[in-house]
Amino acid sequence: MAGIQKIMSKVQVALLFGGVSAEHEVSCLSAASVLNHLDRSRYEVTVIGIDRNGRWYRQLQELLPLPAVKADGSQLVSVIPGVGLAVAGETLLVDVAFLVTHGTQGEDGRLQGLLDCAAVRYTGSGVAGSALGMDKDFAKQIWQQQGFPVVPWLTAHRDRDSSPEACSALFARCSTTLGLPLFVKPANSGSSVGVAKVTNGAEFGPAMDAAFAVDSKVMVEKAVNGREIEVAVLGVSQPEAFGPGEVVPNHEFYDYEAKYLDPHGAALEVPAQLAPEVSSRILELAVNAYRALDCLGFSRVDFFIDRSTGAISLNEINTLPGFTTISMFPRMVLHSGMTYPTLLDRLIDEALRKPR
């Protein structure tokens, strides 16, 4: 009985990872890092892996270590509205779900809405903040309305802009309005999947096809010859900004290969070498951008600084950023003196204060 009482006194954490997106492997790495650093004297952890088809499985201890989602039909997890999570008809004890589910169906509001229906608290932003943060077009529209600086862009839709004729007309409009070169990217994606740099009309069509293969909405942006600056934002009622840090790519731009395949694809500098007044401006902008999208818990906010003019532009926000110990978000927070386990504690404590 004493052992049961000890377990029940701990916070019951469900660690959710994996998923259907192209960022599945990144999510697995984030989950392994979080699992390694959760204080087991404080938390009882149930690990739930989501496979590439969207099925949820409880991960038994003998099936660990991560990273990998192990599919065991006897451990299939059910989500029951108003009740919570269950395995084989038995309800799981979950005080809070810790989410490291990057990408589509993991950080775009759909998973968050499902957990809301199941009365399960979770780390990070709610439905609105997650959906807006994932859709780069909507995020930039809101930031522009708030008067924040953003990179100029035009939006294309698969149903009306994917034919050769429409694509040719769109390139003419984009090259005239935005100039060359251009960046083509899916509006709802992460990890630079489907992103291409375009310098002429011959490259535009294939770039649009690749982006439309990822998402039905595509953004065409003016290319900025800029430094890539990132800021970590942490908190709910009084969010704090940490950093800035700088990504220094060794490729033409910070693409998927540079992020995950090439060990020398980029250098991550924390802190970024910026004038104090520039750092202060970027930190302030990051918090305001975070609040404008109704984000909660934590996010990474990305900027460009034009190398010629020094102009600062908001690029995008990531409401479930990579969470390994070498990922930019934790590195910027840890540089302030906070430890990785303390960062996890803070995120869980904030989630526990949410109403069910």
Structural description of this entry:
34% of the residues lie in helices and 26% in strands. By secondary structure, the chain is α+β, with helices and mostly antiparallel strands. The protein has three domains: 2-123, 3-Layer(aba) Sandwich (Rossmann fold); 132-149 and 225-319, 2-Layer Sandwich (D-amino Acid Aminotransferase, Chain A, domain 1), CATH 3.30.470; 153-222, Dna Ligase, domain 1. A five-stranded antiparallel β-sheet has the order 14-13-12-15-16. The protein has a four-stranded mixed β-sheet with strand order 3-2-1-7, with helices on one face. It starts with a helix and ends with a helix. The model is unreliable at 1-6 and 257-263 (pLDDT under 50).
Summarize the structure in short.
The protein is 34% helix and 26% strand. By secondary structure, the protein is α+β, with helices and mostly antiparallel strands.
What is the name of the CATH architecture of the largest domain? 3-Layer(aba) Sandwich
Distance between the termini: 29 Å
Q: What's the tally of helices? A: 12
Helix and strand element order:
HEHEEEEEEHHHEHHEEHEEEHEHEEHH
Q: How many structural units, i.e. domains?
A: 3
Strand tally: 16
Question: Tell me, what's the shape?
Answer: globular
- If you average the pLDDT, what whole number results? 90
CATH fold-level assignment of the largest domain: Rossmann fold
Task: Outline the biggest β-sheet.
Answer: 5 strands, antiparallel
- Nearest-angstrom radius of gyration? 21 Å
The low-confidence runs, each spanning 5 or more residues with pLDDT under 50, are: 1-6, 257-263
Question: In terms of structural class, how would the helical and strand content be classed?
Answer: alpha+beta
